[in-house]
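Exam revision sheet. Question 4 asks you to relate a sequence to its structure. Input first:
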Amino acid sequence: MRDKDPSKSYFACFRLWHGRCICFFLGEESECRESDHGVRRPSPAAADRERMMSRIVIAEDDPSALAGLQALLVAWGYEVETAPDGRAALDMVSAVHPRAVITDIVMPSMTGLKLLRVLHEEEPELPVILLTSHGSPDTQGEATRQGAYAYLRKPVDVSTLKMVLASVLAE
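Answer key, structure tokens:
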């Protein structure tokens, strides 16, 4: 195995308790020293760990929609915090520092658009995904102008939401 070009074949390395490591080169297992490999590439397992460590805040005033979104994201491996309205979501964001926020637009106490506006003032790099069942071209245009990462209509297409979240993590 060591005669192969490690910069092209290295996949993943796991350190063992006695100081050695097990490396996987294109699906084959071999022992080596860290100095034996060149360029490191993340394994698929590392991508899964990244997703599992990604916290998402969901703001939704409909309890059944909130529970459904939470269950879906947890099943995908995300850590999820929930809020029943925009104001609670704003407080939660400052406390838990999520990788993204998913919010309904029409909610009591603070709308999703207002939440987007405030979040972009406080944390301009935080991606905010807006969901709505009451959408209009004007609302979508306003969301885009305010910097929404995505604007999705309810009922949300699950594959689209998954793709949007993957895009958020890739940045």
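Marking note for examiners. Confidence is low (pLDDT under 50) at residues 1-11, 15-20, 25-31, 33-43.
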